[in-house]
Amino acid sequence: MKNTRFEYLIKTLSRTKRKDYENYIVNAIWNRLNDSSIKPASQWFVKNQNGWHLIDLYFPQINLGVECDEGHHKSNQANDEQRELKLIEVLSAASKHPYQALHIDATLPFEDIELKINDCVRKIKMLVKERREANDFIEWSDVDTVTYFKDKQIIRSSDDILFPTIVSAVNSLMQSTKKGYQLGYFTPRGLDSKYKFWFPQLEVEGKAQARGWHNILSEDGKTITEYNDDIKANMVNWEGTSRKEFLDYIRVTFAKVRDPITNKRAYKFVGLFELKAIDDGDVRTYSKISDTFNASRYKLST
Phi, psi at residue 295, to the nearest 5°? Predict the structure, then answer.
C-alpha cells in the first residue's frame, strides 16, 4: 500500500524551509519525539470570523501547538497574546480537549534553545501518554478504510480519516460493494430510511464548489449553512429541494475538505446534522446532533 504518511511528513516538515530557526526547531521536536503514531502539522492554518492564523507546529491528536518566537514577536507581544487567546477559543470549541500552546524563544543561546526543545518534547510525550492510558488517543497510521471498519462500523468526527470518494465512505461504513454513486445526498441500501448520507463540498474563499451550492461549516463545527447562487438555473428539479420532506432527515455528513499540507481534497466525517431552519431566501441551517455514527445500529436486518 502507498505510504501516504511518508509523503505527508516530507511535505509538512519542509514547509518552514525559508524560516531557518523555525525549521530547525520544528524538525528537532519531531525527530526527538521518535513516535511515528503522532501526527505533526507545520504552518497549521486556523480560520476565524476575523481572519486567519498559522500555528508553527500543531499536533491535532492532542490539540497542542508549538510556537517559535523569533525577534519580531518581542516587539509585537500584545497582538501575539490576542492572537493566542483567539486560537484557544477557536480550537478549544472544536475539540473536547482545550487547546494548549508551548513557546520556544528562538533568540536564546543555542544551549538554552536545546533545553527548551527537550522540555517541549517531554511535555508532548507526557500528554500523549496520559491520553493513551485514558484510551483517548487515536494512533496515526495509513488507514485502509475497508479493513479499518470491517470489525467496527463506528466513526467519530475527531477521527483522522479521509475518504477519497463518496463510494469509499459508503462501502467502508455500510460494508457494501457498490461501484459508484451519482448523488451526494441519499439513503444507502440497507440503512434505516430516516438517515441520509450527505457529502457537501465546502465553499472555498466564498465560492461554491458544486452546482452553485455554498456549504459553510461553522468554526466550532456545530452548524452548516447552505444556500444556492441560483437554484432554478443550477437544479433541474429545484422545486423539490426546498420541501421539508426532502430535507427533514438525519444527515450522516461527510464534508469535502482540502488537506492544508498535501492540498488534496477528500471527504471527512463531521457529524450527524439535522435541519434547524429555512429562511425566506431558502438559506438552510443544519445543527449537529452527534459527533458519532454507528452504522451497525441503523442497518436494516437482512
Answer: -60, -35
Cα angle 226, 232, 238 (rounded to 5 degrees) comes to 70
What is the average per-residue pLDDT within 68-78? 65
pLDDT in tens, 48-57: 666 677 889 9
Give CA–CA dist 69/84, Å, rounded. Answer: 13
The β-bridge relationship of strands 51-59 and 250-258 is: unpaired
- Average pLDDT of the segment spanning 7-11: 85
* All residues at 6 or more sequence positions from 146 whose CB lies less than 8 Å from its CB, including other chains: 168, 171, 172
Distance, in Å, from the CA atom of 67 to the CA atom of 101, rounded to the nearest integer, reads: 7
Higher pLDDT, 279 or 151: 279
Q: What's the Cα-to-Cα distance from 272 to each of 55, 159, 256, rounded to whole Å? A: 29, 14, 15
16: DSSP letter: T
Tell me how crowded residue 64 is: count the other CB atoms within 10 A of its CB: 22
CB atoms within 10 A of CB 236: 7
The three cell numbers locating residue 96: 473536547
Question: Which of 25, 90, 218 has the alpha carbon at shortest distance from 43?
Answer: 25
Contact 262, 11 (CB under 8 A): yes
Residue 180 · residue 167 · CB < 8 Å: yes
Q: What is the pLDDT of residues 102-122, one digit of tens each?
A: 999 999 999 999 999 999 999
Task: Please compute the mean of the pLDDT values over residues 4-27 and round it to a whole number.
Answer: 83
Report the SS3 class of residue 202.
coil
Task: Find the farthest-apart pair of alpha carbons in the chain and give their distance in angstroms, rounded.
Answer: 69
3-state secondary structure of 30: helix
**Can you tell me the distance from the alpha carbon of 118 to that of 25, in angstroms, rounded to the nearest whole number?**
10
